[in-house]
Write a sequence for this structure.
């Protein structure tokens, strides 16, 4: 058989060949174009890689805050919650689930039906569960079960060959009604998840809240220690990227660490949780009894360790439903105050060191002459230094101050640390003011001698100044954090001899002869000084009788172990000593001294070392 080429054979062959080449070129072009085409700012290749990556964040555990004895003041705890997806929970499991949750079956069934109607896929049925809660064990056991579950769904009936042919021919086929198909089999429970969450817990609640502060909803420290040392406590979250790799048909996940996980550091304070508890309750009771606006106190050891730092009002930091910034105000460090007559012992120390007084019982100071605005009180004509401090006598103090130079006061007050930050919590601390003596007027030296005029301070600085009575006239630095870096250097402010003499006089202040008679503690010796100062409102001294009252003291008198400074803001209800029903104006002697007594007594009676000394 002989084949012959048809007409135009070569033309048609060339057309097929060139068409094929064009198709190949177009295909290659599109393949390259698609490969590099940008989708939402990324190539398809990068898009695919992105979809194959998953970023995982490992939350750092926040560091604990501890007291000096290792007691926990703040800690991260783990809570559990049971989260349901009502849309996929099998009805057959509802009775078992209700039993596991300790809920009535009808109640759980009703809730699930309501959530299904509203298309809700999440329902936290139990929360704030500790890891030992029996509900969690019940849920764990429930998830191990396999029970018979029947599912039904509507399906379209299959079509026969004739109907398929009609569809291929483009002809209409009558739609058949869907039929219900039920399928039963053993299944595990669906839509039940146990989730974990962490929360910051403060075991000592409101007794220490203004000092510790708290964390916010983003787990960032706000207020107090939590904020001041957040960078140490918070740690660093770990960040990893999980990538899908394919090799030899096996898929595995390879983690790439972008940021190493670093848990927060623990922070140990010099605070004693037991002393903190006693002091807080003492000032709270006193503030409520005297109807004071607020109260604060600080307790120091002789070496400068802060054993307690309490403020009232306060808040429960575990209560996340309510918040008032004033309840987290650290008044001990943040409020600047005029310390009033609590400064008089330092005036006498300075005068004794400068040799302008002897402070002996036979030394008499004339108080019959008016000095500035200060008039004689007609009670005394001559007065001893001891009587000046016992009775908190202003004119007698001013008379002594007149014998000193402005520069003498300024230098001594500077050594005592007034007007300079303590460095404890710089973000909130108000260091107060000590104006340079070159700016003082005629009355400034007189007023500074009894805690007014060109100076103001905070309660922590005032308490620290009293450490000279526990250190033979020397002044150590204050310490709040147990970091091992102990600054043992002390600033010698007054001579040991002068300090010893004024200490003896302060012992008599806390006696029935002195203004601190309500600070007397039976069975214990106490020394200290009262103080009262008009509050400054809008830059002016209050004309409504608003006062701050103080008592700063220590015990035992010889080799003191505890130094306490107490402050009450605007106490409104005070009584005379001999009649608890007879009202009197509020002074340091009948308000702050009483708070000091309660606080110090509770500390002393719970100190085993002090108790053994008193028994021997």
């Amino acid at each position: 058989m002989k084949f012959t080429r048809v007409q135009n054979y070569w033309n048609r062959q060339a057309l097929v060949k060139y068409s094929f080449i064009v198709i190949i070129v177009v295909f290659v072009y599109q393949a390259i174009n698609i490969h590099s085409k940008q989708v939402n700012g990324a190539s398809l290749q990068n898009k695919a890689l992105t979809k194959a990556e998953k970023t995982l964040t490992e939350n750092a555990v926040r560091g604990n805050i501890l007291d000096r004895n290792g007691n926990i003041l703040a800690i991260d705890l783990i809570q559990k919650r049971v989260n349901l997806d009502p849309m996929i929970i099998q009805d057959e499991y509802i009775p078992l689930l209700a039993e596991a949750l300790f809920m009535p079956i009808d109640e759980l069934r009703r809730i699930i039906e309501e959530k299904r109607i509203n298309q809700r896929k999440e329902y936290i049925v139990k929360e704030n569960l500790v890891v030992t809660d029996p509900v969690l064990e019940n849920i764990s056991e429930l998830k191990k079960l396999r029970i018979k579950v029947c599912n039904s769904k509507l399906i379209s009936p299959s079509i026969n060959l004739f109907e398929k042919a009609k569809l291929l021919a483009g002809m209409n086929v009558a739609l058949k009604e869907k039929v219900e198909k039920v399928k039963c089999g053993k299944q595990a429970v669906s839509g039940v998840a146990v989730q974990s969450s962490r929360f910051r817990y403060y075991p000592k609640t409101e007794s220490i809240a203004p000092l510790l502060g708290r964390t916010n909803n983003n787990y960032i420290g706000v207020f107090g220690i939590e904020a001041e040392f957040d960078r140490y406590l918070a740690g660093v979250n770990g960040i990893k990227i999980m990538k899908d790799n394919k090799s030899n048909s096996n898929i595995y996940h390879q983690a790439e660490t972008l940021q190493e996980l670093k848990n927060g550091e623990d922070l140990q304070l010099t605070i004693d949780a037991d002393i903190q508890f006693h002091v807080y309750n003492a000032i709270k009771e006193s503030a409520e009894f005297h109807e004071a606006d607020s109260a604060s106190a600080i307790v120091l050891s002789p070496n400068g360790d802060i054993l307690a730092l309490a403020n009232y009002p306060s808040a429960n930091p575990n209560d996340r439903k309510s918040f008032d910034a004033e309840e987290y105000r650290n008044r001990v460090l943040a409020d600047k105050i005029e310390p009033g007559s609590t400064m008089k012992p330092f005036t006498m120390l300075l005068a004794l060191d400068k040799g302008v007084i002897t402070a002996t019982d036979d030394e008499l100071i004339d108080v019959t002459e008016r000095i500035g605005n200060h008039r004689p009180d007609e009670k005394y004509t001559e007065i001893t230094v001891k009587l000046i401090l016992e009775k908190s006598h202003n004119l007698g103090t001013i008379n002594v101050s007149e014998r000193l130079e402005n520069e003498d006061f300024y230098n001594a007050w500077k050594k005592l640390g007034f007007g300079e930050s303590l460095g404890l919590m710089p973000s909130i601390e108000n260091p107060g003011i000590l104006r340079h003596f070159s700016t003082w007027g005629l009355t400034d030296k007189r007023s500074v001698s009894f805690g007014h005029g060109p100076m103001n301070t905070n309660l922590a600085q005032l308490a620290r100044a009293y450490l000279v009575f526990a250190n033979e006239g020397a002044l150590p630095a204050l310490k709040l954090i147990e970091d091992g870096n102990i600054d043992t250097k002390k600033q010698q402010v007054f001579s040991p001899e002068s300090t010893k003499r004024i200490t003896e006089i302060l012992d008599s202040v806390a006696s029935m002869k002195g203004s601190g008679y309500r600070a007397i503690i039976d069975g214990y010796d106490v020394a200290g000084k009262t103080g009262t100062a008009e509050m400054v409102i809008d830059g002016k001294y209050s004309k409504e009788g608003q006062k701050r009252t103080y008592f700063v003291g220590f015990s035992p008198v010889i080799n003191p172990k505890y130094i306490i400074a107490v402050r009450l803001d605007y106490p409104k209800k005070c009584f005379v000593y001999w009649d608890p029903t007879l009202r009197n104006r509020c002074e340091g002697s009948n308000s702050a001294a009483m708070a000091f007594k309660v606080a110090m007594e509770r500390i002393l009676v719970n100190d085993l070392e002090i108790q053994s000394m008193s028994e021997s």
In short: The chain has 20 helices and 29 strands.
